[in-house]
Amino acid sequence: MTMKYLDEYRDPTQVKLLLQKIKESVNQPWVIMEICGGQTHSFLRHGLNALLPPQIELVHGPGCPVCVTPLEQIDKAIAIASRPEVIFTSYGDMLRVPGSSTDLFSVRAKGGDVRVVYSPLEAVQLADAHPDKEVVFFAIGFETTAPANAMAVLLAQRKGIRNFSMITAQVRVPPAMEAILQAASCRVQGFLAAGHVCAVMGFHEYLPLAEKYQVPIVVTGFEPIDLLQGLYATIRQLEAGHAQVENQYQRAVNQQGNTAAQQSIQQAFQPVDRKWRGIGTITKSGWGLRPELAALDAELKFEVQDLLSQESPLCIAGEILQGLKKTVECPAFGKKCTPQNPLGAPMVSSEGACAAYYRYH
Amino acid sequence: MCLAIPGKITEIYQKNALQMAKIDFGGVAKEICLEFVPEAKLGDYALVHAGFVISLMNETEAEESIQLIQEVSRFDNEVS
Fold first, then answer.
1. Is B60 helix (H, G, I), strand (E, B) or coil?
2. Which of B55, B57, B59, B68 is the best residue to mutate to test the A interface, defined by the most A CB atoms within 10 Å of its own CB?
3. Whole-prediction pTM value?
4. B43 and chain A: CB distance < 8 Å anywhere?
């Protein structure tokens, strides 16, 4: 079965040609970060990283929502999901992410009603169908997922569904990129920006970043040809001393993004300081529910304030997510930490860098 | 998480006061919310994430980018 808009971007002949062009254009070593964990997986799954010239070092960014969702919110989710009156709903990736002492899968194994949803609208429908239960949705994600999560909470409010609430752990890419660029230890010289984040938000937010920090930023898709085109454009800019925002992913992204989706985000959320797991608090890097939606805030609705959160002392996920260390430098990698028994979130997720190396290397 | 898949809109309708669509992903059909793309029409290719269309595929841009790659490839074959 062919898939339009996917198969054309996987053609091996074109991949070889682009790899050749990249080789010809590189004269110096460059460190380039792909922001999105989906891109990390695509690079490794297609083996592209091994085919790049040795001067190009790819470092993997923090664009993995389950990896950066703070431990404290995961512990709260686990506490809420354990309550007998609660149906807890989440995107599938989140269930195996370790909290301080357990995960959501284990809550389900012990009899908790924990369900995976594909769309947050399913969680609202569940609440509508089970008025005797409290339905809680774990609203994680970057800007790509924010409109869907926003629509769910707005719909619940509009329909007066009082037994729906959510834990809001929304994060945003540009403040995280700025935090990476401001760090004294920053090695990143160019970025592949996350194509689907930009499908929602556009790319105007990246123009001041490219200008201020003099880094090329190329909005990039997810298929092999997309990734190599994005890299080629970044390398050409680096070699020429340019620092501009370019859009490789024009079939899905324009500068202003999806304005209807942005409006829903603004109706539901407001910028908040957000703690990123392993990284720390980044100013205005998240979205929290607007005050008029406080009745739908699960963290206020349920008493879960006195939890003591404790990270595994072995896990170096924070440094990996900032591009400071490589997965394989972690002493626990593949030994004490595996996808079956993860110490940190990047070993769990389909976007986590550790899981990608474990699977494809 | 930020994975989004392109599919073809085969049906558009209202459900629970939301604009919805049937979208075909290479033979598998799913019900998807269209609220963020009021301009969507039958036959459009849409990028879908978490049950919502987040963007309509720009067919002209897509064809141009493919053509561009093929032209570069042809040129390279001719000179080499």
1. helix
2. B55
3. 0.93
4. no
